């Protein structure tokens, strides 16, 4: 009897929880900002069209444990809604509801549920979506099935095609899987191969799975002043992480320990997440471009460590790489490679301005690197094919670490410039170069005259890095008990 009373009381308390917790940050982008973004998209949409967006799926980690939920960036950009199991429709033209009211957007969200909120956290529900996010037409997901919309009347139905990787919860008729299946039925989605990506040609119907990307790239590529402020914070947080590691690192530390210092700084500043899995590669591990094992138990006194990490703050991510000597002093060979990469980055930074294509920044860096590798005797000619510099140097950043955006630079685009040189062990070159991996990656804001370096707080030159690494760190006094059993 006592257990029943307690459970009943708990349900009453949870069902009356406020739609938004006072424990949440108060500096998220506001509902008016998201509303204005939806209007900008509407203005760019084709005549007589509707755009359909689905929230990201909940992803299973193992057994009954899911990954921490991360909203689809387009969905977050347009709504501010941070929960799963939702669908958004934006109409080019006004629609008329059954009661005669006019609307041009409608959202269906997960319903409030006292028991589920006890286990997995608060939901804002349809009423909270109206109040907090500014939607006039917001309904529980269970009502989407009854939503009588004739998709055939539209010249174009814009959406991203499906990859059939969403799990079905048979106990929930309004989960994401159900919303997608209901949309497919309403929109007469082909059933034969269950995918519209079957040829290079768009199927001859009103379902358009390609046009939405360009529309969203046009919007998301050029940042608003509010977005730029969040990106600046994410960049600064990430820079502080690099600086604190420069002060704290010592030979014998592990890659994972270095990763932990970075990510502790991120959390200290209330960054909610990582923009991407942290890359911390000591010595030859730095030659693996997306090395995320970070397992090396002891960093060698004579090697470099490449650290590519970015904090995600309120959805916006930085992307910064620094390469430093574990012992605080670059060797002659390490210094030569480092300064070559820095020269390439500086050359691309000077070339960065409105009207220039992103790919041109790679051309500029590659020319500098190839010339330098010839001078160092690592390659024979500047046109020689090699894998010492195997990637491009620039991409957009924002809600994604590789954010949507157009190829030609415009003011208020946020981008990276990240040349690198990687010489794995046993390469066809003098062994003195083996195991040297250097990448220098900074974040920039394109302006009307060129670009602004956003990540300059983290030292970039050999002299500044070596000077910073001489500074004391409070972490040097942080000692933990030995957990290894004594033999």
Q: Key features?
A:
single chain, 487 residues, alpha+beta, Creatine Amidinohydrolase, Chain A, domain 1, Creatine Amidinohydrolase, 2 domains, six-stranded mixed β-sheet, 12 helices, 32% helix, 16% strand, disordered N terminus
Question: What does this 3D model show about the protein?
Answer:
It is a single chain. This protein is α+β, with helices and mostly antiparallel strands. It folds into 2 domains: 18-219, 3-Layer(aba) Sandwich (Creatine Amidinohydrolase, Chain A, domain 1), CATH 3.40.350.10; 222-477, Creatine Amidinohydrolase (Alpha-Beta Complex), CATH 3.90.230.10. The chain is 32% helix and 16% strand. The protein has helices at residues 2-15, 31-44, 73-79, 114-120, 125-133, 176-187, 211-221, 225-248, 255-268, 332-351, 358-375, 462-468; strands spanning 49-54, 60-62, 65-66, 87-96, 102-109, 138-140, 156-158, 207-208, 273-274, 279-282, 304-309, 311-313, 316-317, 320-325, 414-417, 420-423, 436-439, 442-446, 451-453. The strands form 6 sheets. A 6-stranded mixed β-sheet has the order 6-5-4-1-7-8, sandwiched between helices. A 3-stranded antiparallel β-sheet has the order 9-12-13. A 3-stranded antiparallel β-sheet has the order 10-11-14, covered by helices on one side. The chain is globular, with a radius of gyration of 26 Å. The termini are far apart. The model is unreliable at 1-19 (pLDDT under 50).
């Amino acid at each position: 009897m006592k257990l029943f009373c307690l459970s009943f009381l708990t349900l009453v308390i949870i069902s009356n929880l406020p739609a938004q917790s006072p424990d949440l940050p108060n500096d998220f982008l506001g509902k008016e900002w998201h509303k204005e973004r939806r209007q900008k998209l509407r203005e760019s949409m084709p005549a007589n069209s509707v755009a359909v967006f689905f929230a990201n799926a909940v992803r299973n980690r193992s057994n009954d444990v899911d990954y921490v939920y991360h909203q689809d960036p387009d969905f977050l950009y347009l709504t501010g809604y941070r929960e799963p199991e939702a669908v958004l429709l934006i109409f080019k033209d006004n629609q008329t509801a059954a009661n005669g009211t006019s609307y041009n957007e409608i959202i269906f969200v997960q319903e409030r549920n006292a028991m589920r909120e006890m286990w997995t956290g608060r939901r804002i529900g349809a009423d909270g979506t109206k109040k907090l996010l500014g939607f006039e037409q917001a309904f529980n997901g269970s009502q989407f099935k009854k939503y009588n919309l004739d998709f055939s009347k539209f010249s174009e139905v814009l959406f991203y095609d499906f990859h059939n990787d969403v799990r079905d919860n048979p106990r929930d008729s309004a989960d994401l899987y159900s919303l997608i299946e209901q949309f497919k039925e309403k929109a007469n989605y082909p059933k034969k191969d269950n995918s519209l990506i079957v040829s290079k040609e768009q199927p001859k119907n009103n379902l358009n799975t390609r046009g939405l990307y360009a529309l969203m790239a046009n919007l998301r590529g050029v940042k608003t002043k509010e977005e730029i402020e969040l990106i600046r914070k994410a960049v600064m947080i990430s820079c502080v992480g690099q600086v604190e590691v420069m002060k704290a690192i010592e030979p014998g530390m592990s890659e994972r320990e270095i990763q932990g210092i970075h990510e502790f700084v991120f959390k200290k500043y209330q960054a909610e997440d990582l923009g991407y899995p942290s890359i911390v590669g000591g010595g030859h591990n730095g030659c693996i471009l997306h090395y995320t094992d970070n397992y090396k138990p002891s960093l060698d006194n004579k090697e470099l460590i490449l650290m590519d990490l970015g904090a995600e703050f309120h959805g916006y991510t930085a992307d910064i790489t620094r390469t430093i000597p574990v012992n605080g002093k670059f060797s002659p060979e390490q210094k030569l490679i480092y300064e070559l990469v820095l020269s390439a980055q500086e050359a691309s930074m000077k070339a960065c301005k409105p009207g220039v294509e992103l790919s041109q920044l790679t051309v500029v860096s590659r020319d500098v690197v190839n010339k330098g590798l010839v001078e160092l005797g690592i390659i024979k000619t500047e046109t020689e094919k090699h894998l010492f510099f195997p990637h491009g140097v620039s991409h957009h950043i924002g809600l994604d670490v590789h954010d949507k955006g157009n190829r030609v630079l415009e003011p208020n685009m946020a981008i990276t410039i990240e040349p690198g040189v990687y010489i794995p062990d046993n390469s066809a070159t003098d062994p003195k170069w083996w195991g040297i991996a250097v990448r220098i990656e900074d974040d920039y804001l394109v302006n009307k005259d060129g670009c602004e370096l956003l990540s300059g707080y983290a030292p970039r030159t050999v002299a500044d890095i070596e000077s910073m690494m001489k500074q004391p760190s409070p972490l040097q006094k942080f000692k933990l008990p030995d957990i290894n059993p004594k033999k």
